[in-house]
Structures are given as C-alpha cells and as structure tokens.
Write a structure and sequence with these properties.
Layout: H1 2-11, H2 13-16, H3 27-51, H4 58-62, E1 76-79, E2 82-89, H5 93-96, E3 100-105, H6 108-129
Antiparallel strand pairs: 1-2, 2-3
C-alpha cells in the first residue's frame, strides 16, 4: 500500500507538492501534510469516541492499537465486515481481579474511514516520518 501512495504522490498534482523540483521530499510540505494527517486522526478519534456506544474514558480511546506490540495486543479488529474496537475497562478490576472487556462496533461509514486510514494513510505517514 505504501508503494501505491508513493506512486500517487509522484503522479498527482497534490502529491508532487510534497516533492521539490529535483525529486527530493520537500521537508516543509511533508511536515505540513503530516500535520494535516494528525488533524484528521484527531477528528477520527473524536468520531470513534462519540459514535461507538457509550463514550469510553480518554485513556481507553487514546491507547488504541492497530497492530500487536511486545506487551499489548491490538484492539482494533474487523469482524464480519464491521470494524470493532475492544477496550479493557479497569475500574472494576479491583472487584473482580481482572479487567472487563468492552467491545464496540463502529458505524459502517466510520469503519470504512478507519480501514482506509489504516490501509493507506498510516503506512504512508510512517514512511514519511522515517
């Protein structure tokens, strides 16, 4: 998917703005683009927070992971074509000695936006920041 985004950046007028005339990345424009992606991600997070059932705690929403890490599993999944987030609610942990697992399904259109972000924008963003 990153290769597809690189090709689009080379071929589209908007993508060519990210490059200088000699084909190198224009650092100023790349930073501007990355700020726009961060703004988009903020809006996406607000939409997830507001539309997928009872709003979660801030720490639950801001610690979403789309891939497994060394110490934590991902908590964004696709199940039967629907995007689902799974958070672990820790307030009751002291009572039951384990966190409560809370699955939430995103509305279909928001799920599509999330998948498009994870498939195209996130890898390209990661490529540009390296």
């Amino acid at each position: 998917k990153t290769q597809w985004m690189l090709t689009r950046a080379e071929q589209s007028e908007q993508g060519r703005r990210l490059q200088s005339s000699d084909g190198r990345w224009n650092v100023k424009q790349v930073k501007r683009y990355l700020r726009q992606v961060d703004r988009f991600l903020t809006l996406l997070m607000v939409c997830v927070h507001m539309t997928s059932g009872q709003p979660g705690r801030g720490s639950e929403v801001t610690t979403m992971r789309h891939q497994n890490g060394l110490l934590q599993d991902r908590n964004i999944f696709v199940m039967d074509g629907q995007v689902m987030t799974v958070v672990r609610y820790h307030k009751s942990q002291s009572q039951w000695d384990k966190p409560k697992v809370v699955p939430r399904f995103l509305p279909p259109r928001l799920g599509q936006v999330m998948v498009m972000y994870l498939a195209y924008l996130q890898p390209f963003q990661e490529y540009l920041t390296v």
